[in-house]
Structure to design on (351 residues):
């Protein structure tokens, strides 16, 4: 767990690689193809894009739930099955990098690989079997990339803002204030808590979450997350006028889909949406009270997410407790987009 009142960190240069050992294109070439891989505790995600005036166009993408951190909370290690699933997904990513002739890529791994005793061994296996060089990034860099990837969806205003990313193994909170015109906001403080949807679920136990006392289990998870944020709250401004809130994670996009009663997930409807806080709390309470079958029956949750979404709701409500904004901004973008923007900016593209 770490907390820092600080300006935006200055990380070292990103890893430059792809599975196909690509050639480097000339600086600021619009024909250059870039890629970003984000291997989290729960998901493996890939985004491939080319720069366009003022932004970029996505030419390929991939996402798969791999549950790399399954069992990590109890064993301290990545299991063979979890590593196999992740390597298989990364093999798909490597094939896409080759087919799309990616010229510059950065592939990052987060909390599961940071915490696992065999995390470095897994990274070496990935390099050996797929050619992808995973970079295990620090929470500080994870927070910076998330902000860079989604900050344009913040509500207009000159008040302070909190941007958060609920992951599988950790939750990153970043306090920002407005930057200059067309500039990313300035990071005032950041915090990484050891609770994500996988780690918090395993800490409480699925039996308790699905049992007759599941509402009490939900309250315990919410309090556990809130306790993990306690020191960060000391860095927050006392005056909370005109504050803004933006979330990027599967939790907030899923809950936004439930709020909209979507029959299936639609990124265009969700990305950039602003939802009243009261509505998000109502949905979180409703989900916490449901059993597994009831949650599975909700179209944008389904059986694949039904066991972890309760922990996500608990973490979200703990965040709402410490940062009482009126609305929650929803971002279906984050680390991958932050990586792409960093790579393209280094090559002289104006984004």
């Amino acid at each position: 767990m770490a907390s820092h009142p600080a300006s935006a960190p200055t990380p070292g240069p990103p890893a430059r690689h792809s599975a196909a050992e690509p050639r480097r294109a000339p600086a600021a070439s619009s024909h250059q193809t870039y890629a970003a891989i984000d291997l989290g505790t729960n998901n493996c995600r890939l985004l491939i894009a080319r720069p366009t005036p003022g932004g970029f166009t996505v030419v390929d993408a991939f996402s798969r739930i791999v549950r790399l951190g399954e069992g990590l909370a109890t064993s301290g290690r990545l299991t063979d099955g979890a590593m196999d699933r992740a390597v298989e997904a990364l093999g798909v990513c490597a094939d896409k990098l080759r087919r799309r002739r990616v010229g510059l890529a950065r592939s990052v791994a987060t909390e599961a690989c940071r915490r696992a005793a065999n995390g470095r061994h897994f990274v070496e296996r990935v390099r050996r079997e797929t050619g992808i060089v995973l970079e295990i990034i620090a929470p500080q860099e994870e927070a910076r990339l998330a902000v860079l990837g989604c900050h344009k969806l913040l509500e207009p205003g000159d008040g302070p803002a909190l941007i958060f990313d609920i992951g599988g193994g950790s939750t990153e909170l970043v306090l920002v204030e407005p930057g200059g015109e067309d500039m990313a906001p300035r990071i005032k403080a950041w915090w990484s808590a050891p609770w994500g949807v996988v780690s918090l679920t395993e800490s409480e136990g699925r039996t308790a979450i699905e049992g007759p006392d599941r509402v009490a289990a939900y309250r315990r998870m919410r309090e556990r997350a809130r306790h993990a944020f306690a020191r960060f709250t000391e860095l927050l401004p006392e005056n909370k006028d005109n504050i803004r809130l933006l979330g990027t994670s599967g939790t907030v996009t899923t809950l936004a889909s439930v709020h909209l009663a979507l029959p299936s997930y639609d990124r265009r409807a969700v990305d950039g949406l602003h939802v009243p806080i009261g509505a998000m709390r109502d949905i979180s309470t409703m989900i916490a009270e449901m059993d597994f079958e009831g949650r599975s029956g909700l179209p944008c949750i389904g059986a694949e997410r039904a066991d972890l979404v309760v922990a996500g709701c608990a973490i979200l409500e703990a965040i709402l407790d410490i940062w009482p904004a009126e609305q929650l901004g929803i971002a279906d973008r984050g680390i991958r987009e932050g990586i792409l923007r960093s790579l393209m900016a280094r090559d002289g593209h104006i984004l």
Remarks:
- The longest helix spans residues 80-99.
- The first strand starts at residue 2 and ends at 5.
- The two ends are 33 Å apart (CA to CA).
